[in-house]
């Protein structure tokens, strides 16, 4: 009997920051039928920049239980909606630095990725050597004169302390204090769902299905033949010649393990069949730990929902200091913290986390252990970041808007430990000789055929800046690699190309 027709040439799993880009770019070729499946709802409204709709009752975010460090557990959110985490985030759209890409494979050196950073954006304020002026994502900055008083007092304090002014934090190795580049227009966040996907929706070769959860990739031997999904309680196989996983750093690692790709011992212990033993799936992920300092404001400064959560930052020596423009209670519905805060984040941490499966049921969330501040170097770096932040808080310039840190300082120095929600690198790219690499430098899953990953999972090391702009760049580059077509056989079994 002949094999049934595929439902698509390519299935893109996950319509988040990266998935919307991949679906839009791949469907620009009218000869390729693309199906995008997204677990969350569709959304055409990017939402005001100053509100993060990720609180406990959100219908556009998923929450996961995590352990930040031994004895310190919490929950984290990811966007679960077209546009993904980029549709619910802070709108801080900053590139990885030139030096970040030195630890990526040669094909992803800064000179190789720069054309894709330029292609994805319209940033007319920046130097044209580094910036694009006709890409889908608008990048803007708030003028110093229009900033919230907390942001401008913070920049003045940084300058008074001797830090340089960085007018464009998206220049290759920009450091210092400056305005945050934002993927926003007139106080509204622009996600890749609005910038890339919506303009492509009229194409007859692109279908988008929302509210559908992928359970696993299905293989015939090592060849992917499609994706198993659950629709209205019924399991179905959606067939395709190629599957591109864009389910995010949590979702993609989770899906790969449920598809039989991961540490063989772990999968076998749960009774899951092993298709390819890849010990690196879920291992050594990175994120940016953040400790916040509460302070006493002199006055309540009016802010509306279109005011960016962060308008300015200081980048120095692997530390990012974040003067939030409002207490978290005003930013995230359902959160109770009413203190204004300065965030101190480690942007090049040593400590690495691990994601494993909780059970053989794909509906169960994974186990996520960050192991934050487990390295002595990270604890020392965080202490010096907190000292620096206290110095800025007590400076004359910041004193215009606030007094010193709130009395009754935490007894434990890292008491207010949280995460930047930048989890990346659960399926890192590397050479095929590297046992811990999960994808090769073209982002093809090693050891099988027909599956690629194009999202923040593939970062070899989390960038030393927020990952959103880099997620879009990865999606642009992987789409171009797929469109470029042929690539040599890459796995030990000698099987064909993706
Ligand atoms: C609240 C918040 C604030 C943040 N702020 C910033 C910021 O200001 N700047 C910055 O640079 N970064 C920020 N980040 C991080 C940044 O947004 C993410 O790193 C980035 O968007 C991740 O892109 P992605 O494509 O890898 O995954 P996502 O954008 O998370 O997309 C994954 C998509 O896959 C879908 N999916 C998952 N599993 C399945 C499945 N089994 N079947 C079908 N669909 C599935 C999800 O619903 C989701 O839509 C923030 C993140 C959060 C959550």
TrEMBL record:
InterPro entries linked: FAD/NAD-bd_sf, GMC_oxidoreductase_bact, GMC_OxRdtase, GMC_OxRdtase_N, GMC_OxRtase_C
Name assigned to this protein: Mycofactocin system GMC family oxidoreductase MftG
UniProt keyword Disulfide bond present: no
Superkingdom in the source lineage: Bacteria
Signal peptide per UniProt: none
EC supergroup of this enzyme: oxidoreductase
Chain ranges of the Glucose-methanol-choline oxidoreductase C-terminal domain: 349-475
Similarity annotation: Belongs to the GMC oxidoreductase family.
Enzyme Commission no: 1.-.-.-
Organism: Rhodococcus oryzae
Residue ranges of every copy of the Glucose-methanol-choline oxidoreductase N-terminal domain listed in the record: 9-290
Keywords: FAD, Flavoprotein, Oxidoreductase
């Amino acid at each position: 009997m002949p094999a049934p027709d595929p439902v698509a040439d390519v299935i893109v799993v996950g319509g988040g920051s990266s998935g919307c880009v991949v679906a839009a770019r791949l469907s620009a070729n009218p000869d390729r039928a693309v199906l995008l499946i997204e677990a969350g709802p569709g959304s055409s409204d990017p939402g005001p920049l100053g509100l993060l709709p990720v609180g406990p009752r959100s219908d556009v975010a998923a929450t996961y239980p995590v352990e930040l460090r031994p004895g310190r557990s919490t929950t984290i959110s990811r966007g679960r909606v077209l546009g993904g985490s980029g549709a619910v985030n802070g709108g801080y759209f900053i590139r990885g630095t030139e030096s970040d890409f030195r630890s990526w494979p040669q094909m992803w050196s800064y000179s190789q990725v720069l054309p894709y950073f330029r292609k994805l954006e319209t940033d007319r304020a920046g130097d044209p050597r580094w910036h694009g002026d006709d890409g889908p994502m608008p990048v803007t900055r708030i003028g110093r004169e229009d900033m919230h008083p907390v942001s401008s007092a913070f920049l003045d304090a940084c300058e008074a302390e001797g830090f340089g002014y960085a007018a464009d934090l998206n220049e290759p190795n920009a450091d210092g204090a400056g305005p945050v580049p934002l993927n926003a227009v007139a106080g509204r966040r622009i996600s890749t769902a609005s910038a890339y996907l919506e303009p492509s929706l009229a194409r007859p070769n692109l279908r988008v299905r929302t509210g559908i959860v992928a359970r696993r990739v299905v293989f015939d031997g090592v060849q992917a033949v499609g994706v198993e999904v659950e629709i209205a309680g019924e399991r179905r196989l959606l067939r395709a010649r190629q599957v591109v996983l864009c389910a995010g750093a949590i979702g993609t690692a989770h899906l790969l393990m449920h598809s039989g790709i991961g540490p063989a011992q772990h999968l076998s212990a749960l009774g899951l069949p092993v298709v390819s033993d890849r010990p690196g799936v879920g291992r050594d992920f990175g994120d940016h730990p953040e400790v916040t300092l509460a302070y006493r404001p002199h006055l309540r400064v009016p802010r509306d929902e279109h005011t960016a959560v962060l308008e300015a930052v200081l980048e120095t020596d692997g530390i990012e200091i974040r003067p939030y423009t409002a207490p978290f209670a005003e930013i995230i519905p359902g959160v109770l913290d009413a203190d204004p805060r300065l965030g101190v984040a480690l942007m090049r941490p040593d400590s690495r986390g691990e994601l494993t499966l909780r059970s053989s049921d794909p509906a169960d969330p994974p186990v996520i252990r960050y192991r934050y501040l487990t390295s002595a170097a990270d604890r020392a770096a965080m202490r010096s970041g907190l000292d620096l932040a206290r110095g800025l808080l007590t400076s004359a310039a910041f004193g215009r808007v606030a007094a010193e840190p709130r009395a009754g300082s935490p007894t434990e120095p890292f008491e207010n430990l949280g995460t930047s929600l930048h989890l990346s690198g659960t399926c890192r790219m590397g050479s095929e000789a590297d046992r811990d690499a999960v994808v090769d430098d073209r982002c093809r899953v090693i050891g099988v055929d027909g599956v690629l990953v194009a999202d923040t999972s593939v970062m070899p090391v989390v960038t030393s800046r927020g990952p959103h702009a880099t997620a879009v760049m990865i999606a642009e580059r992987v789409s171009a690699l797929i469109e470029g077509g042929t690539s040599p056989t890459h796995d030990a079994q000698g099987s064909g190309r993706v």
